[in-house]
Each structure stands twice: as C-alpha cells, then as structure tokens.
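ugh finaly. both done.
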Amino acid sequence: MIIPETLIADVNFTAEFNPNALRFNSELGFLEVDEAGVAVDSLRLLGFGVPIARQGGFDRSDVVRPLTEFRDLPPAEQSIDHQGKGVGPRLYNVRAALAGAWSKPDAIGVYTFDISPARLLDGRQAQGGKIARLARHAGRIARSKLVGVEAVVAGIHDSYGDADAVELEMPPLPQARQAVHGVKTPTGVTPQFIIVRNPAITLRKVGETNAPW
C-alpha cells in the first residue's frame, strides 16, 4: 500500500490545503483528494507540474488555465520533443518524474484538478513496449519534417477523441533522463502523467516543491 506522505514529503503546501485529505488511487496511480466539495461524478487529483505560460516560461499563477492549442504555445514549445504526446499541461503522479522532463525549473508546482472518470482516457495499455514507443516517437519526428510539427501533433490530438484528459506512462527517453539525474521513483509507484486537454479544467496550485535534481 502506498502511503501518501511518502509522495509529498518535500512539498510546502499552502495553509488552506489539508494534506491529510489525500489518499492514493491505485487504479490511476495518482494521489486523490478525498474531501467535501468534490462533485459526485468527479475525482480531484493532485499532480506535480510546470505549466507553460502563453508568453513563454512557466506559469507560476495560483490558478492556471491550461494551454491546449498548438498555436497558443510559445515557439520554443512547438516541437515534437515537447508535444509528442499532445498539447496540454502534464501533471505527474510523483515529484521524481519531473527529473525526466525536457525543462528544468527551479521549483515545481503542486496542483489539484477535477476530472470526470468518464472523460479521462486511459492510454497506458495502448502505449506498447519500450521498442514500440521509441519507434513511434522516431516516426513522428521523421513525419514532422515532411508535413510539419503542427500537423503531426494534430493527428496525435485527434487520436484521443474528445477526452478531457489522457493518462500515460512515462516514455523511455524521460525515464533515461531521470536515471541520468540519479533520481529514483518511490518504491511501488510507476511514474505516470495526465495531459489536461480541456481548457475549462482549472489547475489550482496548493503547494510547491524544489526540483528533484
């Protein structure tokens, strides 16, 4: 059993947030906020992330409106390496997973967000093995040189249908970058992330933590 305290040991929460309300959702692999005020048909999840600001850099606002359209991203983010899984902020289930991300901020935001399970696409099983994932990413890079990055990202976006968010496991390359930094994932937890695809889903910052590298 995963004890929530092991995943939030390095987080400085705001005074308004109650970390005792957290429990580990083993089906999703994410911490879930179990408290009054959550809609009956929704889950309130907690994730670690560094949302991108429209003007570039990281959005450090207490309330973040997700950027979910390719054209709204700053030019530095408009690449297959950054958008190879689709557009939208990525919220990770563990702090350690940020060591595998391309960007390396000094601080990581900790956010809650509400999602209906019926609107959350579980894409983990469809990802395939390590070799298949590496080949798929290489193919997307090659295709982007022929038809453009935006067209390839649009195809990825369409593959998720109308889901508000999609959950995926960490790809091989981010896992390798995490290993290079010597950052280990807590025992018993698989590093995963949720891409928020609906701009109406609000990310509310409830804390911050230092970078794990």
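ok and the 2nd:
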Amino acid sequence: MWAMNKLVNIVLVVDDGGFPFSNGDYGNSIDIEPYEHLLELAKMYSTVIPIDITAGYLDIDRISNPKIVKLLRENTDSLPVWNHGLTHSFKGLPTEFLFYDSPEKIPESIQQEHLELSQKIFEYLELGRPAVFVPPGNAWEAGVTDRIAKNLGFKAIAVRQFEKTPLKQWICALGKAYKQVWKKSEYIDTYWRLGVGVSSLKRRINKYDVWKSFKYIQPPNRLVNYAVNRSWKRPQAPHHFFAHIQNFCNTGSIKHWSNIIKKLVQSQKERRFEK
C-alpha cells in the first residue's frame, strides 16, 4: 500500500470523497468523473493527491459506484485514501467529532465507534487502513479525537489552524474572526492545511477562481493576507491545500485546476528553498 514517505509529493488534498451527491445525501449527483480528473492531474504533475473519504458512503449496502472503489484500489500511488470520518455529520449537524455552534460535546464513545468502524470499512473494501485522519469540517476535540486516532494506529491528523466565522459576522465584529483555533496535536503528527478559496459546492471552475486561488496560495502582501486569513500574521506554512470532490466534476474545469496545481507545486518548491 501507499507509503508515508510519499507525503513529500503532496500539494493538494481533496475532501468529501465518496459523496454520492454534492451535499452528501442530496444535491447534484457525483459519479466517477471527478476521480478520473484527479488521476489525470496527479499524473500530469507527478504529484500525489490524497482523497479523504467518508467511509459510510462506501459501505457495501450504500455504495454509490463500485467503479470508484476499483479506481482507488488500482491507483493508491497517485490517489491514496485518507479517512474523512464515518458519516460526516452527527445529530443533523455537518460535523462529526466536534460542534462549532453548540456547547454540547460529542461523546468519546461515539467518536471511538465512528473512527473504528470507518477504518474497518476501508479495510473490508481492500483500501487498507488510512494513516491520516481528516475530521469533517476540520472540527476535532483536542486531547480526545486525536488520542483515539493514535490508539487506532493513525499517524497524523490533517486540519486547519483555525475555522473562520462567516464573512458577514466577521465584518460586523472584527474581533471575532474565528469560531475555533487549534494548536498541534500532542498525540499524533499535525498536518496544517489551508483552502484554495473555492467553495465546496462549486462544480465549474473559471479564470476568476484561478486568480482568487493564487491569492490564497501566496498572498502578495499583508493586506491580502489579512483578508484571506483574518490576521496580519501569516499562518504556519501549510503541509497542503485542500479542495472538494465536488469541484472536479466539470471536464472543462481541468485546465483551470491544472493552473492551480502548477502554482501549488511552485509554491511548495519556494517554501523548501526558503528553509
């Protein structure tokens, strides 16, 4: 199976793998095409594009398309599977391991069960046991979720340093830029990640999206950095940037994603040179 030492080739990770529809259980349908597009892009730039998958959508009784599992099995070097939870949601809310807008905590027993079952599903489908965990919505309970992940054999958790408040709320209260801020896990490696500025539901990428993504990948000045990351300080250099499987549905968007990935590869090389 895919080796951890290939992490060096990663610039982009794709969330929401396995979703049969744009919003998981409803919305525009998602077939095998975005996975084929990602494979094409990975080979084009000799890079690795992990797809973090919500295991419940690949369960044998709910599987949306067996061809997707076959494609992933046959291309683990280019499109390795990362764990994106079991259900992606809990109690009707869009996160599975921590609620952003509720003081209620998700029981440790539920977190344990969801992570354990998701790993069993991947193993049952001959996709191995993913080494990296990407909590849905980048929401995790420090000291609990990561401890459970370590005990289950995960090597790393891939998360944002911060979850931004909705733009309108931030404009009205500039002191409340973030819903949540995290430090590195004390239990497993932490792979910081940043978005490329493309909405999770956007299926057709255009030249404006490329221009905007470039500003997210390398803010040209402190003002743009403040607008993108809501801080005058730059965030820690990310291990990778992320997009969503929904963003790769349109064949005509591949040329634009090619430009974005080219920029990501260039940016990664520049960060290594700076070190």
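summary for the 2nd one i guess: The longest strand covers residues 189-195.
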